[in-house]
Amino acid sequence: MDKYFCKECLGLWHKEKFMLCCPGCVAHRDAGWTPETLLSVYGPMFKVSDRAYFPSLSRIYPPPSRTKPQHIKPQTYTWLKSSNFLSEFKQQQTEFLTKYETNDNPDFWYALDPIVHQYNKKLNF
Hints:
Blueprint: E1 4-5, H1 7-14, H2 23-30, H3 35-42, E2 52-53, H4 74-82, H5 87-103, H6 106-111, H7 114-122
Helix pairs in contact: 1-3
């Protein structure tokens, strides 16, 4: 089973449709996601990657909101690595975190999943 959305999924979301042969599209749809919500959460990942990995097949709807770009706290890496998310999702999100920190490119910040934004935001110094 694929654990990611592909550019064909993305193309269908733009047409307000789901790829019915994709387990991720079907599971998200069944959980209440719309093509518009899929575009808002996973669409930014396609600016920097050919695939958008999801944290789990049965993902809760609605997703949390994204935050404005901010400093990445070291604990965010630890949390992500030790989470129960799918391994490919953790790998992709860690890559986006690292690229954002080293390049300060906002595309990598917005490619981060909203759950990563929210965790990073909750950490206080």
